[in-house]
Amino acid sequence: MAKKLYNSLWFQFWKIWNKIGPPWRPSVKEIKWWEKKIVELNKSNKNLKALVLGSTPEIRDMLAKNKIDTTLLDANQSMYEAMNKLIKKKNNREKLVVGNWLEMEKVLGENRFDFVIGDAPHCNLAYKTWPRFFDGLYNVLKPGGYFMVGSITLEFNERQTIEDLFNKYKRKKKYFKNFKNRLWELYQLADEKGVWTNEVRGFSYEAVRKLLKREGAKRKIGLKELDENLWFLSGDINGEALGNYVEVMPTLEEQINLQSKWFYLDELYLILDHSAFKIRRAMILKSKRLK
Fold it and tell me: HEC string of the chain?
């Protein structure tokens, strides 16, 4: 099943990305916050070299605007091609390297970049591999380099049960036609048994699918209806594209403590202005590497 994470189905991901907004995508404020730091760095070094983890279009547009020499490291070329559909500003100084984020220094070499930037890349990696991830970042960065990163968390203002979800669906089916509404309702199920587990520090999509199917069957709701009205990725209620993907979301304190071996926390930006939940935070980390 894991192999299907890297198949052509992901080429369609741009359609999903185009539908959703913050906090699942970086906000305009977040991008500008990072840009302020990059402009500051650019004043003292006109030949900045940036590494982007993934192919996030908002980040790439900002780097193109500032004419930054950019390398993208993405494990999935189909995702890169998909995100290209959403790019607004072409960067002639951008190139793609297909490779594993857990083998950065092997793929790219050491002491290469002034800063690395990414939209929640570590949230896509098993929590047990995070030390290897941060070690790789430390090695590819130049001494005193920066890691600029957004993180998804599960610090909600509200929670709901699966019973709440189906009751709401029964009353307000039209509400669930909206893609963002469905996504928000599913994320609120984080407290349901087996959805978020301390073992993996994450939110299991497979667990949510199983929960929907089991509880839907009790209510005589078929897979087609679940897929079209309650799941967020069309045609994936059986897990064909996402497989057993887990979105890793430890607490802020736990993340800061883990990364402190390699990085200082230079700046922290908490995104707290959403009316219902707070599941984004952005950081600027400075490498402890001196030479």
Answer: CHHHHHCHHHHHHHHHHHHCCCCCCCCHHHHHHHHHHHHHHHHHCCCCEEEEECCCHHHHHHHHHCCCEEEEEECCHHHHHHHHHHCCCCCCCEEEEECCHHHHHHHHCCCCEEEEEEECHHHHCCHHHHHHHHHHHHHHEEEEEEEEEEEEEEEECCCCCHHHHHHHHHHCHHHHHCHHHHHHHHHHHHHCCCCEECCCCEEEHHHHHHHHHHHHHHCCCCHHHHHHHCCCCCCCCCCCCCCCCEEECCCHHHHHHHHCCCEEEEEEEEECCCCCEEEEEEEEEEECCCC
For the chain, list the domains and their CATH numbers: 2-153+251-287 (3.40.50.150), 155-248 (no CATH)
Query: pLDDT-derived band of residue 157, with 50, 70 and 90 as boundaries?
Result: low
CA distance 264 to 107: 25
- Residue 276: what pLDDT? 56
Give mean pLDDT, residues 127-146: 96
Bridge partners of 71, per DSSP, are: 51, 95
User: pLDDT band for position 31 (50/70/90)?
Assistant: very high
Give whole-number Cα distances, 103 to 67, 75, 200, 277, 285, in Å: 27, 11, 21, 34, 20
Return mean pLDDT, the chain.
Answer: 88
Residue type, 39: V
- b or e along 45-54 (b: 16 or more beta carbons within 10 Å of the residue's beta carbon)? eeebbbbbbb
CA 72, 75, 77, 78 dihedral sign is negative
Q: 9: pLDDT confidence band, cut at 50, 70 and 90?
A: low
- pLDDT, position 23: 79
